[in-house]
Amino acid sequence: MALSNSYETPAPGFNFDNAARNAALEGLFDGGQTPKPLKTGTTIAGVVFKDGVVLGADTRATSSEVVADKMCAKIHFISPNIYCCGAGTAADTEKTTDLLSSNLTIFSLNSGRNPRVVMAVNILQDMLYRYHGQIGANLILGGVDCTGNHLYTVGPYGSVNKVPYLSMGSGDLAALGILEDGFKPDLELEPAKELVRAAIHAGIMSDLGSGSNIDICVITKQGVDYIRPYQESQYKHNRTMKYKYGPGTTPVLTEKVVPLKLEVVQETVQQMETA
Amino acid sequence: MLEETAPEWLSEEVKTGTTIIAIEFNGGVVLGSDSRVSAGASVVNRVMNKLSPLHDKIYCALSGSAADAQTIAEIVNYQLDVHSTEIGEDPQVRSAATLVRNISYKYKEELSAHLIVAGWDRRGGGQVFATLNGLLTRQPFAVGGSGSLYVYGFVDAEYHRGMSRKESQQFVVNTLSLAMNRDGSSGGVAYIVTIDEHGTEEKVILGNQLPTFFDQ
């Protein structure tokens, strides 16, 4: 069946391409210790309010116990009216959201309209289900379309949940407590932003895998307000000195020049056409 | 020293650890389910509706792996749509159940989901089909999911043919309530769907409105 949004029709059935590659990779490393993928160890949350959807995320990316990126962007652009927060393996969430964004752009160009959130969810679910959990992406999709304001979550195995508020990632239980307590249907913009901020903040305080700043993204019919950062970490360190070194800092003791011997092996001349 | 930045349940498969039930009554069927979706020890969604429409008068109840069950329901929904357009009338419940059974049987090793299909059609009236592991059997009532084990005794003793619509709905609600109280993987609210020749009625019964029994 030709889909209006894919470049190629996906093959039917499960996709086990990566299983063979993973087995081969394990053989390459001694002792079968493949390098651990970079996880975002995250707190992400979303809330549906009266006029749209608010998405929030922390900005810490960890590689085991080291913070690999202090200002990582976890809220990804999908289409002008849909944004997606990603938790799980950083590379998987990046690539999956990129792929989804490209597919929806093709759809927009083909049909001349903004995509619906449910379409993004269906494409994601299709793809993640076909890979049978091998793609470690926990995604929160939020957006506004002609049918209303929607918030969905898609799990790595392809399960979909449609809810008015949710959180994902390693800090999600802390954030969910705040959301369960403070959520009301049809919130106004400022209380909704404050609720999401408080939820992410709870995740940052209670979870080691989440930290640094808080990003907020507000999507309404009028447009998108991507506030990065919405709140800066209070533990931000100010550099006490500059690390730039001027020329002459390192003294030169001796200098030795050795010309390389090159011989011409082959010479081809191609005339340029300027007509 | 940090051992693991992410809790295990994040990468665990999401299961619906469920109680689902479908029964036939005079002139239709009633389907019921709880609303808890778990991943390991964590509840991922406490308000999920596990009664998924396959057609106007045919519904299925999902249990097992959330992703597998949702996908099967969506695929069969599409196939049934095509089928009903081809034959030019509403499909039979048996056809819907057969389509679900075909997928469950063909991908037996890879899938771990059990769907109960129930609905109303012109020829057979209300019908309930179980499709566990790829079999297809018509039964007067069917229960499924992890919570069903706790209520087999209750349904076996209390079910009788010729119940009225109201009696059947009450029977389903009672069964769900008992199962949700005993099974750790079932809980939340109860969703009820009643299908008969006049139409389909969906209802939600909130936690505090569920019937209570002897020890509550």
TrEMBL record, chain A:
Would I find Cytoplasm among this entry's keywords? yes
* UniProt catalytic activity: Cleavage of peptide bonds with very broad specificity
Kindly state which keywords UniProt assigns to this record, in alphabetical order. Answer: Cytoplasm, Hydrolase, Nucleus, Protease, Proteasome, Threonine protease
Catalytic center at which residues?
42
The record's annotation in Pfam families points to: Pr_beta_C, Proteasome
Which molecular function terms from Gene Ontology are attached? threonine-type endopeptidase activity
Q: Name one GO biological process term.
A: proteolysis involved in protein catabolic process
List the Gene3D superfamilies hit by this protein, alphabetically.
Glutamine Phosphoribosylpyrophosphate, subunit 1, domain 1
Q: Which InterPro entries match?
A: Ntn_hydrolases_N (IPR029055), Pept_T1A_subB (IPR000243), Proteasome_bsu_C (IPR024689), Proteasome_bsu_CS (IPR016050), Proteasome_sua/b (IPR001353), Proteasome_suB-type (IPR023333)
Task: Report the subcellular localization.
Answer: Cytoplasm; Nucleus
Q: Where is the Proteasome beta subunit C-terminal domain?
A: 239-269
Q: Provide one Gene Ontology cellular component.
A: cytoplasm
Q: What is its main location?
A: cytoplasm
The UniProt entry, under PROSITE patterns, shows: PROTEASOME_BETA_1 (PS00854), PROTEASOME_BETA_2 (PS51476)
Q: Which domain of life is it from?
A: Eukaryota
**What's the family?**
Belongs to the peptidase T1B family.
Q: What does this protein do?
A: Component of the proteasome, a multicatalytic proteinase complex which is characterized by its ability to cleave peptides with Arg, Phe, Tyr, Leu, and Glu adjacent to the leaving group at neutral or slightly basic pH. The proteasome has an ATP-dependent proteolytic activity.
Q: How does it assemble?
A: Component of the proteasome complex.
Q: What is this protein called?
A: Proteasome subunit beta
Native species of this protein? Amphilophus citrinellus (Midas cichlid)
Automatic annotation (TrEMBL), chain B:
Task: Describe the function of this protein.
Answer: Component of the proteasome, a multicatalytic proteinase complex which is characterized by its ability to cleave peptides with Arg, Phe, Tyr, Leu, and Glu adjacent to the leaving group at neutral or slightly basic pH. The proteasome has an ATP-dependent proteolytic activity. The proteasome is a multicatalytic proteinase complex which is characterized by its ability to cleave peptides with Arg, Phe, Tyr, Leu, and Glu adjacent to the leaving group at neutral or slightly basic pH. The proteasome has an ATP-dependent proteolytic activity. This subunit is involved in antigen processing to generate class I binding peptides.
Protein's UniProt keywords contain Hydrolase: yes
One GO term under biological process is: proteolysis involved in protein catabolic process
- Pfam families given in the database record: Proteasome
Q: What is this protein called?
A: Proteasome subunit beta
Compartments where located: Cytoplasm; Nucleus
Keywords of the record, alphabetical order, are: Cytoplasm, Hydrolase, Immunity, Nucleus, Protease, Proteasome, Threonine protease, Zymogen
Question: What residues make up the catalytic site?
Answer: 18 (nucleophile)
One example of the protein's molecular function in GO is: threonine-type endopeptidase activity
The record's family statement is: Belongs to the peptidase T1B family.
| Record's subunit section | The 26S proteasome consists of a 20S proteasome core and two 19S regulatory subunits. The 20S proteasome core is composed of 28 subunits that are arranged in four stacked rings, resulting in a barrel-shaped structure. The two end rings are each formed by seven alpha subunits, and the two central rings are each formed by seven beta subunits. The catalytic chamber with the active sites is on the inside of the barrel. Component of the immunoproteasome, where it displaces the equivalent housekeeping subunit PSMB6. Component of the proteasome complex.
CDD domains reported for this sequence: proteasome_beta_type_6
Q: Which reactions does this protein catalyse?
A: Cleavage of peptide bonds with very broad specificity
> What Gene3D superfamilies is this protein classified in?
Glutamine Phosphoribosylpyrophosphate, subunit 1, domain 1 (3.60.20.10)
* Predominant place of localization: cytoplasm
- GO CC list: cytoplasm; nucleus; proteasome core complex
